[in-house]
Amino acid sequence: MTGPRTIDLTGEAAADARALRDAFGCFTTGVTIVTALDEGGRPVGFTANSFASVSLDPPLALICVGAEASCLPALNASGAFVVNVLHVDQQALAAQFARRGADRFEGVTPGTWHTGAPVLPGCMANFECRTEQSIDAGDHRILIGRILKVHHDADHEPLVYLRGGYRRVHTD
Fold first, then answer.
1. Is the pLDDT of residue 154 over 90?
2. Whether the Cβ atoms of residue 132 and residue 144 lie closer than 8 Å to each other
3. Cis peptide before 43 (omega within 30 of 0)
């Protein structure tokens, strides 16, 4: 731990990216795998923690994807995605979908719903979305999706990410 730190990002000097990343790391997030189909109909997916509800009426959720992410062209072309919310026993799956240059779907048999995007089995929740809006935002793209179908099973502890690592949260 480095102790408290304040960073002024209003000046012209380059921001301290590590300190900013550390500050964001103080916010506990859930861990998800976002899946879609590429233009050839092949499944793509990546581990993400940038997922949030936007609206209940209409049902909307958002994800943020790095502008340089290898999955972004597939997400843009497909117009649909699934957010698969992981539980604590799926940490290895989170790591598998975070690897570069590997078959992320190795050993995984996804299902499909309305859009054909891969739905990962056994997750705490799955949200199938059709992209409603895509917004460029700095070095990321925000995709807002209309939720078409949802599954949830709250009988698990969530997998969370905090301060650069996976964590457990005991739920009562």
1. no
2. yes
3. no
Tokens for 170, please give them. Answer: 């005991």
Nearest-angstrom CA–CA distance, 47 and 45? 7
Dihedrals φ, ψ of 5, to 5°?
-150, 140
- Which pLDDT score, from 0 to 100, does residue 112 have? 97
What is the residue whose two structure tokens read 């998800």?
32
Report residue 65 as tokens.
């994807």
pTM of the complete model beyond 0.85: yes
- Bridge partners for 43 per DSSP: 37
The per-residue pLDDT for range 67-103, each reduced to its tens digit, is 999 999 999 999 999 999 999 999 999 999 999 888 9
List of domains in the chain: 30-159 (2.30.110.10)
Distance CA 166, CA 88 (A): 9
Query: And the tokens for 139?
Result: 């070095």
